[in-house]
Design brief:
Length: 201
């Protein structure tokens, strides 16, 4: 029973609505425009470091039927030719293409013709959330679940837990369940107890 209570549930599926934009509002707005068929450019390239939100946005776009290609920096020569041809076909047919990589299109050693195509569309560098934005995201998530989340619990999470947003959200969900099970309010001591039990389970 204890393990069942402490199982961290899978995160909610990524959507454009549940993406915490932080400093990436313009990129999100452009993707929403493509999704609603109101975009001037249907070709968007996203780049940035790990945990900047690329995978979330690509998964969200793929879920609503857009063509997406991740990790452009890892494509071999044949895959680059395929992507070049796909780009041209979608351009011809009025389709949309969302691609992503670690760096800007012209800084990854891609074929010149492909790098040029990817740079023709909208290009956005994604920025990871800072601590204040992560704290806001946690508070918003807590409010949606009806959790009273003290600031000191958020501070503890950001200081001692893995700092990626999916881990922080999953921990908050588990803490909410543990709070309901123990009939105790959400506090730092309750969080410490949960984490200790999870280690022992």
């Amino acid at each position: 029973m204890k393990q069942l209570l402490l199982d961290i549930k899978p995160a909610a599926p990524p959507t454009l609505l549940n993406f915490i934009a932080g400093r990436n509002e313009e990129a999100l707005a452009s993707l929403n425009a493509v999704a609603s068929n109101s975009a001037q450019s249907k070709f968007i390239y996203l780049w940035g470091e790990t945990a900047s939100g690329k995978s979330h946005l690509l998964s969200a776009c793929e879920s609503i039927g857009m063509r997406v290609v991740d990790n452009a920096h890892l494509l071999n020569n044949d895959a680059q030719i395929d992507l070049f041809n796909t780009y041209n076909q979608l351009k011809e047919s009025g389709g949309a293409l969302i691609t992503a990589g670690l760096h800007a299109p012209t800084q990854m050693g891609l074929r010149d013709d492909l790098a040029t195509r990817l740079a023709w569309g909208l290009v956005y560098q994604l920025h990871p959330l800072n601590d204040a934005e992560k704290a806001l995201a946690l508070q918003n998530h807590a409010a949606e679940r009806g959790i009273r989340l003290p600031t000191e619990v958020v501070d503890y999470c950001l200081r001692y837990l893995r700092r990626d947003l999916s881990t922080l959200m999953a921990t908050l969900d588990a803490l909410d369940e543990w709070s309901l099970t123990t009939k105790k309010p959400v506090t730092v001591p309750l969080l410490r107890q949960l984490l200790q039990l999870n280690l022992e389970a």
